[in-house]
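Chapter review: from sequence to fold.
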Amino acid sequence: MASKKKQLPAKKQPPAKSIAAYLDGLEDPAARKTLSKLFAQLRKLLPGATETFSYGMPTLKVEGHGVAGFAFFKEHCGFYPFSGSVVPSLGGLLDGYETSRSGMTFAPDQPLPLKVVKAIVQARLAELEAAKTRAKPRARPGTRRSTAS
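The token string follows.
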């Protein structure tokens, strides 16, 4: 008996193998242009970042932590810093955009200004750095800390 391959829904595309492939696969020309520009900005701001996918969207990670993700949906683009506090902390800078605790959306034909992208990335990197300095090294089990006399 021949095995049948699972069919994808008509509009659903298989997942992209790279961010470049994701961008090339976008059918909306405005979204492709806008998100390609955003990706170029992010590569300049995060030169050592790892390119991957998280939650099904192109993502740049620094030291294993998501810093910037983006995607095109049916009628809008989204930008996500993988934090529930970055977007709310930027207040007035994001006036005019649809925002949630975890991200923001914008029209495909209205690219985000570099000022906004840079502020979000810097806020997320600062948050990660603060978390790193708050983390205290743990003593290994069975060892004692020496006390100076």
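Two observations follow directly from the output. The longest helix spans residues 114-134. The mean pLDDT is 87.
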